[in-house]
Amino acid sequence: MANDFTVTPWEVSGxxxxxxxxxxxxxxxxxxxxxxxxxKHTKGLHYFLKRKIFFAHTYFDTILDQVEKGKKFYxxxxxxxxxxxxxxxxxxxxFCKWLQDKFNVNLxxxxxxxxxxxxxxxxxxxxxxxxxxxxxxxxxxMGFNPKKTKIFLDxxxxxxxxxxxxxxxKKITLxxxxxxxxxxxxxxxxxxxxxSMQSVPAFLPTILEGKTTYCLIPCAIDQQPHFFxxxxxxxxxxxxxxxxxxxxxxPGLQGMHKEGKxxxxxxxxxxxxxxTPRQVHDKIMKYAFSGGxxxxxxxxxxxxxxxxxxxxxxxxxxxxxxxxxxxxxxDYKSGTLLTGDLKKLTVDTINKxxxxxxxxxxxxxxxxxxxxxxx
Length: 375
Ligand code: TRP
What we know:
Strand order of the largest sheet: 3-4-9-8-5-6-7
CATH superfamily of the largest domain: HUPs
CATH class of the largest domain: Alpha Beta
Largest sheet: 7 strands, mixed
Shape: globular
Bound molecules: tryptophan
CATH topology of the largest domain: Rossmann fold
Strand content: 5-15%
């Protein structure tokens, strides 16, 4: 069946048709004209943009307007601490890092430690606190500018957050929340309120600067419904509309069609930021869905299908060298590159990436205090 997929902030499943998702969500594609305009400022484009991994936006043009007027904007993104960080989480953060470096701007990083507590029956506040501490190391390890990056937990910055969240909540009716998120009468009222907490950081640039300051949110497209709410409320509270720049999902090792996006809940098919080279090797070799043929002979003769091959998909996210990527695509398609060898290339690429990450993660332990918002 066509269009048999679901994308909400709490559930992503099925084979996603990103073009119809753009229409369904009422967001805009990142078209060549906009990318050209961006490129004038960044002198080159991140490979995520060239490969359409970041593929859609809302109000991104208003951010470029600000840049062209010589005004600073803020970046904002977040991570709900419910378990260890995996490769999929890191995709928007890599892009945030690139944007921060290119525009030399502040980044607000929200850790909504109440979110997964409210939405997941089994998670205690003690556990979300523990995962916050762990996840913050991975966030710092992304290499964000310590002078321009502030990380905060919602429960610890309640003093700053709560009154603004109330202002947001007052402007959202239950019926809007129900139709945006699909809530029913059996959701708890904390779940309904939570979206106001995710909206507030989009307004913090203006609140903290004491003057109208625009905000750009790089995130995966499942978070967009929250920011529709944000923008519904923004003009009513005197804030500028918030911009988003939106990514596709990194598939789980079994592929989008079988397990959806990479998810911490299925450990064997998820690559975590702290996995050892051996673990990465074993997971990919054993589980990565292959676009190869059943026999060596057939593969050599007919070639493989890189478009459904998960190892190849991972290379599009983590192998920066576009020439090499193209070569791999062609060789796999023609049958000269075998599945085992493609998997090895992917293992090496990811292990190289994680080795650097883990070294920075180790150093991050001493830097936590510098990164936390004083609130
Ligand atoms: N809801 C996000 C999650 O489940 C966390 C989050 C909070 C977030 N604020 C954000 C994500 C802003 C992207 C952008 O992990």
